[in-house]
Amino acid sequence: MRHGATPILAALLIGVAMSPRACRADPQPLPDSRLGIPTAPLLLLSRPDVRADIGLDPKQAEAAERAITELYARASSVKQMKGKQASVARREVNDAMLRWLQTWLTDAQRSRLEQVELQWEGPSVVVRREAVARALDLSQTQRETLRHLVDEHHRRRDQGPYQWSAEHELAQRVLSILSEPQRRRWKAMLGRPFTPQLAGAGTAPPRR
After folding, report:
1. pLDDT tens digit string along 93-147?
2. Which of 55, 65, 106, 188 is deepest in the core (most CB within 10 A)?
3. Phi and psi torsions of 203, nearest 5°
4. What are phi and psi of 29, to 5 degrees?
5. What are the CA-CA distances from residue 139 to residues 107, 128, 134 (Å)?
6. Given CA atoms 47, 50, 55, 56 in this order, what sign does their dihedral have?
C-alpha cells in the first residue's frame, strides 16, 4: 500500500489479534469503535460495508475471511515472541498480507481499499504518516499545529465518551490549516466518500 502504511501492518494486526473477538474460529467484523484508529487494510475487509464499497465478489469475500482467520492466529503467536525472532515473524505477517492483497484484489480494488483505509483512519493520518505529510508538502508550522490538534483529539477520545462528530470537527480544522492546493491533493488521496454503516448510530459520521 502507498502513503507509508506497509511497515506497520503487522503491528496493527497484532494489536487487534489480542481481542476476544479475534480469538473466535470465525472472527467477527472489525468493530465500529476502531473508526479513526490505524487499521491493517486486510482487517478492513472483515467489514461488509468495506467489502461492498470496493466490490468484493463472494469468492474474494470468502478468501478474505480465511486469510484474516489465519493471520490472526499467526499474529497471536508473534505476540509471544521477542527480539529478532519477533521482528522476522512480523515481517512474515506483513509479507503474507501484502501477497494476499496483490493476489486476490484487482488494481482498482487495491487503490480503492487504500482510499478507504485513509478515510477510516481519518484526518489524523496527515501527521501519523510521514509519506502523507510529504505528499501534502506540509510546512514545519503546519506539522506542529496539526500534531497539536491531533494529540488533543486523541486525549479527548481516550477520556470518552467518544462522539463521531468529534472526528468531523477534527477534519474541518485540519482542512482549515491546509492551503487550497493541499486540500485538493488531500481530497484526491481520499477519493469518493466512504460511508461506514455504524451499528446503533443510525447514520454514518459526517463525510470529510
Report:
1. 888 899 999 999 999 999 999 999 999 999 999 998 999 999 999 999 999 999 9
2. 65
3. -135, 160
4. -55, 150
5. 32, 15, 9
6. negative
Q: What are the helix (H) ranges across the chain?
A: 9-17, 41-44, 48-54, 58-78, 83-104, 107-121, 125-128, 130-135, 140-159, 164-177, 180-190
Average pLDDT over residues 41-55: 95
Report residue 27 as a C-alpha cell: 472472527
- SS3 category, 34: helix
What values do phi and psi take at 83, rounded to 5?
A: 60, -140
DSSP 8-state code for residue 199: T
Assigned C-alpha cell, 113: 481499499
3-class DSSP state of 21: helix
Longest Cα separation, the chain:
48
Task: Mean pLDDT check: name the lowest of 30-34, 169-173, 196-200.
Answer: 196-200
Cα 135-15-90 angle, rounded to 5 deg? 75
Question: Residue 131: how many CB atoms within 10 A of its CB?
Answer: 13
